[in-house]
Amino acid sequence: MSNEALTWAFNLEGVKAGPKFVLVSLADYADEEGSCFPSVPKISRRTGFSQSAVRVHLDILLKLDLIHEQRRTRPNGSRTSNRYYLHLRGPVENHLASDSGGGA
């Protein structure tokens, strides 16, 4: 858990309650770089939103450029949970430069 990420998410203004609660949930999972990979079902259980509502809220966060996602796959090619990067420190490029890989 990153206290910086939680503080950032809680202090954001102008984000509606649903997307903000999903963002706070992501922030609670995030490491010090603002990276996390909880599954949609896990976020759903945690927030009380349906899985489809979680996906809608994640799409809103993506459109607001508050997060970006990296689709991940297992070695056999099957999908696993996406990795999410919270935009704590500016543009996406800052996060990609520090990413050590891990997924497609």
Structure characterization notes:
With 104 residues, the protein is of the alpha+beta class. The protein has a single domain, classed as Winged helix-like DNA-binding domain superfamily/Winged helix DNA-binding domain (Arc Repressor Mutant, subunit A, Orthogonal Bundle), CATH 1.10.10. It is 48% helix and 16% strand. The protein contains five helices and three strands. It has a three-stranded antiparallel beta sheet, covered by helices on one side. Helix 1 runs antiparallel to helix 2 and helix 3 crosses helix 4. The two termini are 24 Å apart. The C terminus is likely disordered.
Core attributes:
104 residues; alpha+beta; Arc Repressor Mutant, subunit A; 5 helices; disordered C terminus
The value of Rg in angstroms is 13 Å
CATH superfamily: Winged helix-like DNA-binding domain superfamily/Winged helix DNA-binding domain
In the CATH scheme, what's the topology name? Arc Repressor Mutant, subunit A
Rounded average pLDDT? 87
- Biggest sheet strand line-up: 1-3-2
Q: What's the CATH first level?
A: Mainly Alpha
Instruction: Please write the string of helix (H) and strand (E) elements.
Output: HHEHHEEH
Distance between the termini: 24 Å
Structural class: alpha+beta
Q: What share of the residues does DSSP label as strand, in percent?
A: 15-25%
What overall geometry do the principal axes of the alpha carbons give? globular
Biggest sheet record: 3 strands, antiparallel
